[in-house]
Specification:
Helix content: 25-40%
Shape: globular
Number of strands: 5
Structural class: alpha/beta
Largest sheet: 5 strands, parallel
CATH topology: Oxidized Rhodanese, domain 1
Number of helices: 5
């Protein structure tokens, strides 16, 4: 049930607010290692997109999972994959615009690429 629902999206402003509120969530970075070396969001767990099936057991179930990448394309694919793997649709979020939008709007000190 709920495997065909559209993936929910979260704006960078909403994520920033959740961070400031100390909300509980799992922040999943699905970019490649060379991208993470440039910049990353605090308290995020890095699992490259192609390794998600291998490390799916390290992704907690039962809490909100916010997936991000560079612009939001790969993260949407990963969120959809997780949904089909049985994660709750209501707890999967794609970060709109990815880390690039975060660097433009929230933290201008982050390196952009």
């Amino acid at each position: 049930m709920g495997h065909n629902q559209p993936i929910l999206s979260m704006t960078v402003e909403q994520l920033y607010q959740r961070m400031n509120n100390n909300d509980t969530f799992f922040l999943l970075d699905v970019r490649e290692s060379h991208e993470v070396a440039i910049c990353q969001l605090p308290n995020s767990k890095h699992i490259p997109m192609n390794l998600i099936p291998t490390y799916i057991d390290t992704i907690p179930d039962g809490i909100d999972i916010i997936v991000y990448c560079h612009h939001g394309i790969r993260s949407l694919a990963v969120a959809t994959y997780l949904q089909h793997a049985g994660f709750c649709s209501k707890q999967l979020f794609n970060l709109e615009g990815g880390i690039d939008k975060w660097a433009k709007i929230i933290d201008k000190s982050l390196s952009r690429y």
